[in-house]
Write a structure and sequence with these properties.
With about 325 residues, the chain is mainly alpha-helical. Helix content is about 75%, strand content about 0%. The chain has 16 helices and 2 strands. It has helices spanning about 5-25, 35-45, 50-60, 70-90, 105, 110-130, 135-160, 165-190, 195-225, 225-230, 235-240, 245-255, 255-265, 275-285, 290-305, 315-330; strands spanning about 95, 100. The chain has a two-stranded antiparallel sheet. Helix 2 packs across helix 6 (about 110-130) and helix 4 packs antiparallel against helix 8.
Length: about 325
């Protein structure tokens, strides 16, 4: 891709991200009680990539619509996303999110639960503002995305106490927990501006495969990223005993003492912080870091093959740019 195109697409992304940031910052300002909505605003105002709102906007444009037809829906999906993050952080007892204190750490557990729930409710309010076309399909897609995220989170929790999880089971879990939201965002933008079935299918598949690649990249960054760039604790998945793409691949490859060391992670329900480097070296030895990179490329290729089926070929390149940007991200 030409440097000029990269600059152009990044400029589009930055413009839309700033618009979404402004809308999110003001979305809950006038609501009462402040004890509920100030914590909800806190999580919305933290510096996120705004990937999901961007997918809504780009998908609407890809089928002939305009961004101002779907801005409320874009705000809605970011609210939904943050609802899931608040509850995810509570379940993981996480300290940091995007480099800031998580909601339950900054306030308290009850406040975080209620604030998260309020985000979900208000998300539907915002979505309904843009449901002028295909309202039934749009609401169904939005709700299905929510259902699958909950199912994925349940599977993720189940996997933490299971001794054996196959890679196929793991991919299905992240398809629901992470990819379903990206898939929904792509469908939603197209539904709301009356896109064709063919284009909605192309966008839907793009979102699904991109979401899977994104989560495997997240697994990879958890062990390879710089702490200050990543904004979260490095090695957190291992410390919590999570069965990520890398861990499952490592366990399937390891023998002898290496396998025994990995089984200790399951038996002890995680590792200590001073053991992270040891397990990173083990991952490198077993080649699973490279395996993860290969899987990311493969799912990204599937996403690109899907988006190439769009009717409007002039809109394809920005989706390619986005996919490549996510592969190269460091946080």
């Amino acid at each position: 891709m030409k440097p000029a195109d990269v600059k152009k697409y990044f400029s589009i992304y930055e413009k839309e991200r700033k618009i979404i940031d402004r809308k999110l910052a003001s979305a809950l300002k006038q609501r009462q009680p402040s004890e509920l909505y100030e914590p909800a605003s806190y999580i919305l105002e933290s510096s996120g990539k705004r990937l999901r709102p961007l997918l809504v906007i780009l998908s609407a444009k890809a089928v002939g619509g305009k961004a101002n037809q779907v801005y409320n829906a874009a705000v809605a999906v970011e609210m939904l996303h943050n609802f899931t993050l608040v509850h995810d952080d509570i379940m993981d007892n996480a300290d940091l999110r995007r480099g800031n204190l998580t909601l339950h750490k900054k306030f308290n557990l009850n406040t975080a639960i209620l604030a998260g729930d309020s985000l979900l409710a208000v998300a539907y309010e915002f979505l309904l503002k843009d449901c002028k076309l295909n309202a039934r399909e749009a609401l169904s897609s939005f709700t299905q995305g929510l259902v699958e995220v909950c199912e994925g989170q349940s599977l993720d929790t189940e996997f933490e106490v299971r001794k054996n999880v196959t890679l196929e089971e793991y991919i299905e879990m992240i398809r629901k927990k992470t990819a379903a939201l990206a898939q929904m965002c792509c469908e939603l933008g197209a539904y709301l501006v009356n896109g064709s079935k063919q284009d909605i299918k192309a966008l839907s598949d793009y979102g699904k495969y991109l979401g899977i690649a994104f989560q495997i990249q997240d697994d990879l960054l958890d062990i390879t990223a710089d702490k200050f760039e990543f904004g979260k604790r490095i090695g957190g998945d291992l410390m919590e005993g999570k069965k990520t793409f890398l861990f499952i691949e490592a366990l399937s490859k390891a023998k002898g003492q290496d396998r025994a060391d990995l089984l200790k992670v399951i038996a002890n329900k995680g590792i200590r912080s001073n053991q992270i480097e040891k397990y990173k070296r083990l991952y490198e030895k077993l080649g699973v870091i490279e395996d993860a990179k290969t899987a990311i490329r493969n799912y990204t290729d599937k996403a690109l093959n899907s988006i190439n089926k769009l009717t409007n070929k002039t809109e394809i390149n920005i989706f390619h740019w986005l996919a490549y940007s996510l592969i190269k991200r460091n946080k």
